Amino acid sequence: MASYLVTGATRGLGLEMVTSLASLPASQVSLVIASGRSKSPAVQKLVESSGGRVVFVTLDVTSESSAKDAAKEVEKVLGGKGLDVLINNAGIMNYSPNGINTMDDLESSFKVNVASAHIATSALLPVLEKGNLKKVVNVSTSLGSIAMSKNYALFPVPAYKVSKAALNMLTVQYAQAYAEKGFTFVTLSPGWCQTDLGSSAADLPSDVGAKAVLDIVYSATPDKNGKFFNIRVPGWEKKEGLNQYDGAELPW
């Protein structure tokens, strides 16, 4: 029985992950904490139908005070037990179609895509330390890989790419700092999913992407600490085109 907290869980990939986790037997997932700045109708419906296994905790991941308040609420919800898994999923992607020199969203992108993961993680570390699994999973993107940057040069989202590359390094820093305490920090690329962020033109339905992300979460063990993974989707391992989803470790 494991407990999970997912940030950015009111819609898109985060909501799909919470939904998928809640569908598993209680013997596997004891509690799912969905978090966001405010409760969406979809999350409210899920909470009401979950029989108490899904709860919502208000968390603005860009606010340290909100994160501290959320951590206190999480402690109450868990009844003194530890949190097993934190999935830092919240993120934004804006466009700079006229070139990187016109990019005006770098600061906001860093705040939501990088600082938020640090804010949430640092606030929740005390309750994570009491957990059995001690997993922190940061949702990044292959667009944040410097080694693969030429592959994605056509996408005019420089602030997204730069901030996700920074998120990858943040993951490594935490992985190194907390390895001796039994933590596992990993970062992953969730693929191009059909969400508000990814658009309807994306490769994967959001539920398929969510399942593939959770497969990595489930299999994350201390020997994978500090690594960067691609999702695996059957049939996409050697797909022609830009994206393949083979479950392999991605280059930095």
UniProtKB/TrEMBL annotation:
Pfam assignment, any one: adh_short
Transmembrane feature ranges: none
Any single Gene Ontology cellular-component annotation: cytoplasm
GO terms, molecular function: oxidoreductase activity
Name of the protein in its database record: Short-chain dehydrogenase-like protein
Family (UniProt): Belongs to the short-chain dehydrogenases/reductases (SDR) family.
Top-level division of the source organism's lineage: Eukaryota
SUPFAM superfamilies hit by this protein: NAD(P)-binding Rossmann-fold domains
